[in-house]
Amino acid sequence: MDVNTPAVLTGPQKTPLQGIRGWLILPMLGLFYMLYQTIIMMYLDILQVKSAWHLVTNEQSDFYVDGFSNAFYMLQMAQGILIVLLAWNVIAALKGLKIAKPLFIISMLFYTVMVVVSRFVFPNIFGIEIEYSYIINVVNSCFYCFIWIPYVLMSDRVKQTFIH
């Protein structure tokens, strides 16, 4: 062996990062968490309004609120759309579809908007008591967006995984 000849090390080649492993599992768990939270949010909204529904929707009642029923139905419809969007996102991510990446970003942003609307805007408009413990939900959803949207946009693993 000549000392002037460079040594060539033949080690195992690194395989490209792909699949839902590593850090990518955390956003996937986040999708399931958002789905769970949206279902709970929808249920709690219905529970909160159920006891006073006949008072706020009856025009002869002293507690009648004009437009409450339409706004509540719109809120529930938007939460239903979010549930479908999150379920579609989970399916697209598990299949490795290319649509999963933009769908993930849209889902996170829509979830954050829905938390704010459901927990603060809707109650404020119609004079319903706001539970300020829901601030944690808003902070969590914003924090989640600020961490995972850049990861989804920049990560090589995400680029290698969602290619179909």
From TrEMBL:
Residue spans crossing the bilayer = 23-44, 71-91, 103-122, 134-154
> Could you name the domain of life of the organism this protein comes from?
Bacteria
Task: Recite the UniProt keywords alphabetically.
Answer: Membrane, Transmembrane, Transmembrane helix
Which InterPro entries does the protein's record reference?
Answer: DUF2569
- Whether Membrane counts among this entry's keywords is yes
Is Membrane among this UniProt entry's keywords? yes
Q: Which organism's genome codes for this protein?
A: Providencia stuartii
Q: What is this protein called?
A: DUF2569 family protein
